[in-house]
Design a protein that fits this description.
The structure holds two protein chains of two kinds.
Chain A: H1 5-8, H2 15-51, H3 53-66, H4 74-83, H5 85-97, H6 103-115, H7 119-130, H8 137-158
Chain B: H1 8-11, H2 20-34, H3 49-53, H4 80-107, H5 110-118, H6 122-126, H7 133-141, H8 143-155, H9 161-172, H10 177-189, H11 198-223
Helix pairs in contact in B: 2-4, 2-5, 4-10, 5-7, 7-8, 8-9, 9-11, 10-11
The chains are: A mainly alpha, B mainly alpha.
């Protein structure tokens, strides 16, 4: 955004104009990005619950997620996070609204979701555009996972 | 991939002057999302995201001692995509508010002020030259902006491969944290955090990003050979 500043300054805008302009972007983000992501997340949670998979995931991942004071089912939000930040956050919020996660657990989980967030997409959008050699992709994925572990552990200590 | 004369403005650190307004805008945005004025006495309360967000009206009134009431038009006890749809609608005002505020902050130079403050820190914190500041700040708001500007620096020979890997590690983990976590994300979950301020989450995410980038920096210094 900073890069467009010299051009923006040419036309004077007041606070109201800017707010409305931003609000329009917010509407587009809300309806075009968040809505489909969250709807997907709610469908995913429904599928997991209807098939009984959520219980299985909860049991399998419980020992790992316990390190962060989280229930095993939180792993589904992290897994969804690799594909889309909004999707991962949506799953986490869905788990809060159905009473599976508490506010504190959400606060621990969210930084983890964002730090691995959308890395599958960003492989193309970011790493390929920057010009990173593909042999370093695994290293970069590993760093995202390490970051998420550090962040969730820190959050566990401070919230 | 990118021609040498593309983006000349972005790469010149002195092109954009940062006035006092920029620093004020930056301070306002930090205060706004950090929650420090949430319970402030007097008019300072208006400088808080959650306070400005307000609340939806409740659906009706409860008879004394009986029944339950939905907190808003989403209702209670829904599930599946229909519940997801209604839930998202409750979040949209928050996104409009945060994007509306961000648009002002960008216009009044808040982001440029952040860049000015960050640039001298790049060498010690990430081992990157100061002229990576624009790409770094761009990457905080948009993953694609960061990617294009970073590649441009590499093409111009202003970053070597080790620095490129370090910078990529920084950007790859939680890409566009301001764009994703503040402009769009905060609205989604801020009200669900039970008073835990956004600043705490953002602080931890940034700390983790710097730690991760430095792990890559150490790895690259040891194992990546510069091709010359």
């Amino acid at each position: 955004m900073a890069v467009t500043q010299p051009e923006v300054k040419k036309t004077k805008k007041n606070i109201l104009d800017l707010f409305v302009e931003g609000g329009r972007k917010g509407w587009a983000t809300g309806i075009n990005t968040m809505l489909p992501n969250i709807c997907f997340a709610f469908v995913l949670i429904n599928i997991l619950e209807l098939t009984g998979l959520s219980k299985a995931i909860g049991i399998i991942f419980n020992p790992v997620m316990l390190i962060f004071d989280l229930p095993g089912i939180a792993a589904t939000a992290l897994a969804a996070g690799f594909f889309s930040m909004g999707g991962g956050a949506g799953v986490a919020m869905g788990l809060v609204t159905n009473g599976t996660l508490t506010a504190r657990e959400l606060a621990i989980l969210l930084p983890g979701i964002y730090l691995v967030g959308a890395t599958i997409q960003y492989m193309g959008r970011l790493l390929a555009t920057i010009g990173i050699k593909s042999k370093y992709y695994p290293h970069l994925f590993l760093i995202c996972i390490i970051n998420a572990v550090i962040a969730m552990f820190l959050m566990k200590l401070i919230v | 991939m990118i021609s040498k004369d593309k983006n000349p403005v972005e790469l010149n650190q002195d092109t954009v002057k940062v006035g006092i307004g920029g620093y004020i805008a930056l301070a306002v945005i930090i205060a706004f999302f950090s929650g420090i004025f949430q319970n402030a006495a007097g008019p300072l309360k208006a400088l808080d995201y959650t306070n400005l967000l307000g609340a939806f009206g409740k659906l009706g009134k409860l008879a004394e001692g009986g029944g339950s009431l939905a907190a808003n038009f989403r209702g209670t006890g829904g599930n599946g995509i229909r519940d997801g749809f209604m839930f998202t609608l409750t979040l949209v005002p928050g996104v409009i508010l945060s994007q509306g505020i961000m648009e002002n902050i960008v216009y009044y130079g808040g982001i440029d002020a952040a860049r000015k403050l960050l640039t001298p820190l790049l060498k010690p914190l990430l081992g990157l030259p100061g002229n990576a500041g624009v790409a770094l700040v761009g990457s905080l708001q948009s993953t694609d902006t960061g990617a294009v500007l970073t590649n441009d620096l590499y093409q111009r020979g202003q970053l070597n491969e080790r620095q490129l890997l370090t910078f990529a590690a920084f950007q790859f983990s939680c890409g566009a944290p301001i764009g994703n976590m503040v402009s769009a994300g905060a609205a989604m979950w801020l009200t669900m955090l039970g008073g835990i301020p956004l600043g705490k989450l953002l602080g931890v995410v940034f700390l983790a990003k710097f730690i991760g980038a430095n792990l890559m920096r150490i790895y690259a210094a040891k194992f990546v050979k510069e091709e010359k």
